[in-house]
Amino acid sequence: MPAYVHIRPFKAILVILSLLRHLLATQWDYSRRCRQPTQPTPAMVDATAAEQFLDANPQFAKQYYDINFRPKVIADLLDTNRQPAVDVSQFHELTTVEESEILFDLVREIQDNLNMEKSVFNLMKHLSFMMRADRMSLFMYRQRNGVAELATRLFNVHKDAEFDECLVAPDSEIVYPLDIGIVGHVASSKKMVNIPDVSEEIIFYKLIDYILHGKEDIKVIPNPPADHWALVSGLPTYVAETGLICNIMNAAEDEFFSFQTEPLDDSGWTIRNILSLPIVNKKEEIVGVATFYNRKDGKPFDEMDETLMESLTQFLGWSMLNPDTFERMNKLENRKDIFQDMVMYHVKCRKDEIQHVLNTRERWGKEPDECEEEELQEILSEVLPNAREAEILEFHFCDFEHSELDLVKCGIRMYYELKVVDKFHIPREVLVRFMYSLSKGYRKITYHNWRHGFNVGQTMFTLLMTGDLKRYYTDLECMAMVTAGFCHDIDHRGTNNLYQMKSGNPLAKLHGSSILERHHLEFGKTLLRDDSLNIYQNLNRRQHDTVIHLMDIAIIATDLALYFKKRAMFQKIVDQSKTYENWNDWTKYMMLETTRKEIVMAMMMTACDLSAIAKPWEIQSKVALSVAAEFWEQGDLERTVLEQQPIPMMDRNKADDLPKLQCGFIDFVCSFVYKEFSRFHEGITPMLERLLNNRKEWNALKEAHEAKMAALEARKEEAQRATGAKQASAAQSQSKTCSLS
């Protein structure tokens, strides 16, 4: 967002202002602490003497402040959970420090809020409070069919206003020509107009208000309704036209603009004084008009108000309200919402689909959302598989014998085995919908489909339970890790990150690195944002932040490029574990080491993602063919679409090299992670043993293929030698001649 370019230096200024605030607040404490403890206690120093001392010793004061206060002050200011410090419930005189606090909070809010209209609305509320203005309105300047005009976007904003009440819908906006009113004057002239006493001005143009309907049909309303009081005066148009700041100190006596003198609402509110300013972008084009009404203290807006609001509206225009950017951001956000709605429609578990697991219609004669948790639990107790019988606790688990619906049920069972359903109050219906929706979110492709996604989640579950890695993690963390395993490849396209970049896929433009991994993460988080799918909905704020943070790390860790960077760190952790004689002491140490736990978790995700290579041979050999088939499909795309020669691994013309490629993959990628985990926890040794066995099987196939190729090459060479001998013999017989003397 272009706004960030302008926000950051402004934010730095606000940090400095806040630092100065704390410096002044600590002057007395500073002078008191600077006394030598060995000397007799001097007489009490008053604030004036302390201030004089600081003024006389600025370098000394700065050094003391930098050492003792600056780090904490900056940390407090940048804390993401920081709450606004200024009471905005009632108008009051603001100190410089309070103004800086408001501006700092405002900038933070702008940075965090992606909805442009809400950001502008919040800005206007802050400005109304700082100016002690009753009302504020925003008029957007634009050109339609080459005709300049102004349109209401946010109307009647005050410090206690609600966004939905002030937002003007596109079909309800008030559009009028630029040559009418004071707002138009400001937009045209790009200058501030401050009208202290409207009684001293002359009558302006008569207002003609028109509203656009449908296909550019224009309906002229010569007498605007009373709720358009901000336009009747002509002030917005005048400001937009002239670019002047208009400060009108006595609206009732103004003759230049036609302000209504009667009350404008049931409370008897009337216009007393107005401050209207143009909003200008970096190109010095007027993009809107901001208008403030009635200072709360009854006084007219003064020169200080003009200066402050001019600076802030410039900031607003430069960073946020360029019309093109504003419209483009809103359109993009609307498109995003539409596409997200389309995706959720196709991915979310439907009412008829949930009956495949929770058959409440047949059992209870009602929908799941009408049932009590006990009734849903009774059904799940009957339909979910037994963990031992389904072998979901085994490293050799095979999904070939299960349908995709069976895998959904097995996934639900894992949450019960982790004992998180009741502990974190996961609604049964939500859990079922979430797992079912995950299965639908995976595309029907050759390898990176729901079966692969489930296998990764199942291996994570087995590493925690059977491999005994759960001893380092809390139940909350285990839930996040298993969920990350299930989500890690959702919506995979069957092509890798490099292909996304070569083909110019929008994902590559959206995510600079770990392209697909970031997409899978965002897709999973999108599902979790839906109330009917959010298994985290009953967590508190801190717990929710923890699980989302762990999912971020875990899913991004499936990028093999990051795996190679973390191998050395993981190896050091394993080495360190061998220095502890008492296993419980090591466990206690690890439970408190957040960074080490995250590194181990990242390596667990890699072990899970590659787990097919450590399955029994009869499983591994079939899965390897599925992986190779998907690679060959990408190679075909590279050859036909990108017109490039694929690498051997992606080239189906070199399918006979698969055993050799598998041996290389095991040696250079897989061996490390399973060897280290077997060294870390003996319970994970079966994975290493099967990996080594599969290495032997692939090597045998490789040697058989090489022997076959060597035999073919030998026969070919023998045939070439035989052919060469025949040709030489024929040439020799033809060269014999008779010599006569």
Topology:
Blueprint: H1 3-25, H2 27-33, H3 47-56, H4 58-68, H5 70-78, H6 96-112, H7 116-131, E1 133-144, E2 147-157, H8 163-166, E3 175-177, H9 181-189, E4 209-213, E5 217-221, H10 229-232, H11 235-242, E6 246-248, E7 274-280, E8 286-295, H12 303-319, H13 323-347, H14 351-354, H15 360-364, H16 373-383, H17 387-390, H18 404-417, H19 428-441, H20 450-465, H21 475-487, H22 497-502, H23 506-510, H24 515-529, H25 541-556, H26 560-577, H27 583-592, H28 594-609, H29 617-640, H30 658-680, H31 685-734
Antiparallel strand pairs: 1-2, 1-8, 2-3, 4-5, 6-7, 7-8
Structural features, described:
- The protein has 31 helices and eight strands.
- The protein is an alpha+beta fold and 741 residues long.
- The protein has four domains: 86 residues, no CATH class; 218 residues, GAF domain (Beta-Lactamase); 242 residues, Catalytic domain of cyclic nucleotide phosphodiesterase 4b2b; 104 residues, no CATH class.
- It is elongated.
Task: Label this structure with key terms.
741 residues; alpha+beta; Beta-Lactamase; 4 domains; 6-stranded antiparallel β-sheet; disordered N terminus
Q: What level of helicity do the residues show?
A: 55-70%
Number of helices: 31
Instruction: Provide the number of structural domains.
Output: 4
Overall pLDDT score: 81
Shape: elongated
Strand content: 5-15%
Task: Give a nutshell description of this structure.
The protein is built from 31 helices and 8 strands. It is an alpha+beta fold.
